[in-house]
Specification:
Order of helices and strands: HHEEHEEEEEHHEEH
Radius of gyration: 19 Å
Strand content: 25-35%
Strand order of the largest sheet: 8-7-6-9
Number of domains: 2
Largest sheet: 4 strands, mixed
Structural class: alpha/beta
Number of strands: 9
Shape: globular
Length: about 190
């Protein structure tokens, strides 16, 4: 881990303004793979100019390891480091999916949700997403997880959401849900009790 940070400290200026240095990105990928089976993102930061995320890749059991990696990160001017993907700074939640070889932009701002509370501290969530009706079940789930992660951040999604179900229309027992844009606030209120 120390070798990784020593290497990153030495070459962090060489990624390029738009992170276009392909050789260095490949080396970054190899070095992160040496640390473990993690995902990663490199790009503009939230508070600083640049950001590196070493992510558990949606696996809760890897959070302690990514936390340890980031806790050992050096202080580098204009860089911030995260152990899980932070919430997106979206004007509106959007995900791109592919159908029939074409990219389709899905806007999730009209999605509704219902939380089902379980005693183990995790919620199941049902998302009503009519604009995903033409997609297969796997694509619906991928889109929903991207939106949930973008709204909540990866860590909060992992520690609060158990099951995700995506429907075109809620069953009668749920009548209507809450707009997806309120999900972070809602979960915060329920988990801060």
């Amino acid at each position: 881990m120390n070798e990784f940070w020593k290497w990153f400290s030495a070459c962090h200026k060489d990624f390029g303004v738009n992170f276009e240095n392909g050789d260095l990105l490949s080396e970054l990928d190899s070095r992160i793979v040496e640390l473990g089976n993690f995902a990663w993102e490199l790009g503009p930061g939230i508070e600083m100019e640049n950001m590196l995320v070493v992510s558990p890749g949606g696996r809760n059991e890897l959070l302690p390891q990514t936390k340890e990696i980031i806790s050992n990160s050096p202080s580098i001017p204009n860089w911030e480091f995260h152990y899980a993907k932070p919430p997106k700074q979206w004007k509106e939640p959007i995900v791109n999916l592919y159908k029939g070889g074409r990219k389709k932009r899905i806007i999730a701002s009209s999605w509704q949700y219902v939380l089902l509370d379980y005693s183990d501290g995790l919620f199941d969530i049902i998302i009503e997403a009519p604009n995903l009706a033409d997609f297969c079940k796997d694509d619906k789930l991928i889109a929903a997880e991207i939106i949930l992660e973008g709204l909540l951040g990866e860590e909060k999604r992992l520690v609060t959401i158990a099951q995700v179900d995506v429907v075109s229309e809620f069953e009668a027992q749920y009548k209507e849900g809450t707009n997806i844009k309120f999900l972070g606030q809602h979960i915060g209120q329920l988990t801060d009790k």
